[in-house]
Amino acid sequence: MPTISPEPGPPSDPQLHRDRRMAESFGADAERYDRARPSYPDAVIERIAAACPGPELLDVGCGTGIAARRFQAAGRTVLGVEPDARMAALARRLGTEVEVATIEDWDPAGRTFDGVVSGQAWHWVDPVAGAAKAARVLRPGGVLAAFWNAPRPPDEIVDALAEAVRRVVPDIPVDVTAMKRPIEETYPALIGKVADGVRAAGAFGPIDEWPHEWTRSYTRDEWLDQLPTAGVFTRLAPDRLAEVAELTGQAIDRLGGGFTMSYTTLVVMASRVEGGAERG
Question: Mind listing the pLDDT tens digit for each residue in 96-153?
Fold first, then answer.
């Protein structure tokens, strides 16, 4: 059984990019996705932006533009590539230029970039083909940076959600209790697959993997608002989803109506080597 986080965070199944139904299910409620999903810490955005040799970025799997807008606010220009036309449409309305395609099939038409970034999305990309395409469109010294928010809710929330899933949707292939385990145990398969793809491209220098820890406070309504944006719940029948939310909300009520979420943003970065020839 793959370990799939029911709260926004990357699944640790390294082959998840093959599940296109889940990958392209988030646009069913793009407005909720944009409103409820966590953003990224300033320090992460600034460090990635500073590593790029220039201001022009390509945002892979940009969704509604959550990360793109952060980079734009930091003075960068961003072109998004997003396979879900509904997500892309909202991103455009919110100020990000987007082209609808998977990165594997996207035609750069000769364009090149100083950075290829991907927030909360590179696990939907074939790790080898995606890295090869990034190498093809990056200028020498350009940076590929994939990053994810890894959540660690209080145990009471995890236990309540796990019990709700067991009672309401026992057929969902999700191990909710995995959120209790350290990220060093739950994310290596995914991060390793990404790093292997970067190495296979044959055009990048050393891989830099680094974490950034931060916290965010949630009210009951805020956390339940984001729950339907997780991939395992995006296609769940409304009545079943409502029952999961109600049972989980009761646990938040017992904590006083809110809680503090611990996050670790995990980043994988590598620079395009001058003269390197991508493979594939």
Answer: 999 999 999 999 999 999 999 999 999 999 999 999 999 999 999 999 999 999 999 9
Nearby residues of 261 by Cβ (< 8 Å), 6 or more positions away:
151, 152, 153, 215, 216, 217, 218, 223
Residue with tokens 């449409």: 89
Distances (CA, A) of 41 to 93, 133, 178: 23, 27, 24
Give the Cα separation of 125 and 199 in Å (integer).
Answer: 15
Q: Where are the beta strands (DSSP E) in 120-237?
A: 138-152, 208-219
In this structure, which topology does domain 16-153+180-215+262-272 adopt according to CATH?
A: Rossmann fold (3.40.50)
Run of H or E residues at 78: strand 77-82
d(CA 123, CA 127): 8
Q: Say if strands 113-119 and 258-271 run parallel, antiparallel, or are unpaired.
A: unpaired
CA dihedral 197, 200, 206, 212 (to 10 degrees): 0
